[in-house]
Amino acid sequence: MPRIPLGEVIETFINFLVTNFSFLTMAFTRIMESVISFMENTLMLLHPLLFIIAVSALVFWLTRKKGLSIFALAGLLLIWNMQLWEATVSTITLVLIATLTALIIGIPIGIVAALSHRVNRVVQPVLDVMQTMPAFVYLIPAIPFFGLGKVAAIFATVIFSMPPAIRLTCLGIQQVPEDLVECADAFGSTKWQKLFKLQLPMATPTIMAGVNQTVMLALSMVVIAAMIGARGLGGEVWRAIQRLQMGSGFEAGIAIVIVAIILDRVLQHLGSKKQ
Amino acid sequence: MKRSVFLSLFTALMTLMILGSGTALAQKKVRLAYVEWDCSAASTHLVQAVLQEKMGYEVEILPVAAAAMFQAMATGNVDGMVTAWLPVTHADYYERVKNRVEDLGPIVGGARLGWAVPSYVNINSIEEINYHAARFKNRIVGIDPGAGLMRLSEQAMKDYNLDKMQLMEGSGATMTAALDTAIRRNEWVVVTAWSPHWMFGAWDLKYLEDPKGVLGGEEFIHALVRKDLKKDKPEVYNFLKNFEWKDAGQLQMVMAWDQERGADRYENAKRFIKENEEQVNSWLK
Q: Where is each ABC-type glycine betaine transport system substrate-binding domain found (chain B) (predicted)?
């Protein structure tokens, strides 16, 4: 039986894109790289101690939870003490840019998918592919488009972490009780009024759960992203794995966990507060 | 009103960035990729140090996966690298990119592949493995499936008729971890190995004899650069062409410095430059 040349077709397609469009994506990379280094440098300008105190204060202001603020303070001090501060700042920058991008693209798609049955039918299988395709499969083809380093890493992270934002936004809007929607219709509200005054507010907790998942998935990508030169905490972990330095591997791993817990709790709180 | 303020801010920011990237291009910059292997890191940091300290370039070195390193070379995303193991280990990767890179020849020879055991294992040849299969728990600990070493090891399994053994796939890290565990327990273990590698410094190991010569002879570590480097940065091209270690021993020496507690590879590279002034200057001619 003849073998279906699926791999060859995909490779030809990617090569076609590379030869014709990579000048655009490479220009994009150059701009993004300067944005990233600008953000990193700004964050690094602050003395770590100041930064840590500011973050802990911010956490308290956002959540009013003493325990969490103390955890943030102690955790970040531990990271600083382990001499992983620079790596952490770099990772936070990367995760922030990646998740913001994922949300800016993802939430509107989720809304559209919730309102249109047809869009939904197209989006769902695409999401399945995005979530289950092993990240390394598109990391290597991403290099000709975005080069080695942070931009390619962000690209991979966005693809990997966006699906929950879309899915849960869609789900949240679809779960708004039918009678309330009918009620809004009966009072003659427009489509936009219905969306912004009823459906989105009602769906906020679910959407925030999606946001939360997106952040967590983005953080879980940092080690894979390090394989194409993203550095940061993921780079520290990856180096330690390759050199069998269990201790420093765990140190960097713990730093990732600390960042994750802080982000997770703050976001969860923001989500539940709106209810 | 608000929108126009935002717009002007945005344009200002974009202009700044475009200007910024423009000046960045004007500076003398070099990008090198490498893999976190000891030999690769030692060579790459030395190249970085020479370019920065002696030639006034700004050098970015990117630690990546081996596949990513070759892919980046092929697309011209990095200027070069000094970690291509030829003719065998990286043959697969090299075959795919050879039309798009320029091979500047070996920077060091005397590298090799083989199967290694802790020195307390009292056999000396691959031919004896099958007889002791049970003591080795019927397995040979391998690395990532894509490596040339694994392809050769599969061939060796056939050629030596090691029917009681199984070649386990894993990664460089799992291989050294398995070795570490076995040595702690004083157990017998055989791993697919290559040198220079830090494991030969960390533990007392020996290569098994390979009378049929399946695992290849001497390997060379080559420097590769992107096709247009000669035109764009002739100085860098020239240096990388001249760059080479005196012998494998010299590279091993720097690798040993890097293994010391709290070692800084860049500082060690600077130390090498200071101690080998003449050799370094000969690269710059």
A: 28-275
